[in-house]
Amino acid sequence: MIENTKADRKYDRLTAFLRAYDLRVEVLAAGQMSADAQLFIARDPETGSARRVVLSMQGGTADADGIAAEVIFGGAVNPLLAALPERLVVDLEAGTAMRAIVDLFVAEACSPSCGGATVRSRLGEVIVVLAIRRAIDRGVGAGLLAGLAHPTLHRSLVAMHDDPGRAWTVAELAALAEMSRGHFIARFRDVVGQTPTAYLTAWRLTLGRQALLSDASVKTVAFRSGFGSAAAFSRAFSRQFGYAPKTVRENALEPRPA
Prior knowledge:
Shape: globular
Oligomer: single chain
Strand content: 5-15%
Protein name: Helix-turn-helix transcriptional regulator
Organism: Acidisoma cellulosilyticum
Pfam family, one: Cupin_6
Number of helices: 12
Distance between the termini: 52 Å
GO molecular function: DNA-binding transcription factor activity; sequence-specific DNA binding
Helix content: 40-55%
Mean pLDDT: 87
Number of strands: 5
Domain HTH araC/xylS-type: 154-251
């Protein structure tokens, strides 16, 4: 019997984004209940126990009873954040791993101890990943998130995310999704909102931008991203971001999503 077929294999739909963008969570002090907080743990006002997780990259998650935190995850250029619903709410169920992690997060936030800032930050990062994972598993959201939730399209998306420099053909991507070429193009466009080729180009440019911020040269980034030349990469980059690759650092000081 042949094992590890496409139908059986588990495709990691989040790791590529965690590699591309640094995820950081900074818990706000009790007196800093910022309206711009992106992560909020709502608590029962009587027992103090956590009731739900609210994630909104638009900000405005905080209210009086709970713990608020800022989430930094690549800003406006991270396509995963743009695909999230405006307000993602996860009700906490007893006995789940997420409930246990949130309870520990709340305990650390309410009773600070040695190394507490680091512990809270790491637990907050796990909570964000679990919330996004829940959204994907339940098919919440549209665009990229809907594509990642799709039973077969997600395979082609993961392939592009994991190996962006490969000279992917539409036929290869369609085969991963177990669709004909024409059906794949139409379905991908309907679900994700772009053609497969346009999405792959945008993803390559987004990763290229991150590499440029790490001091890689335009020529190196162009090669790694699957472009034929530095000139081709530069033209595509300028069209997508509105500025030349050589000015990426000056243009990287963007405001956080609001």
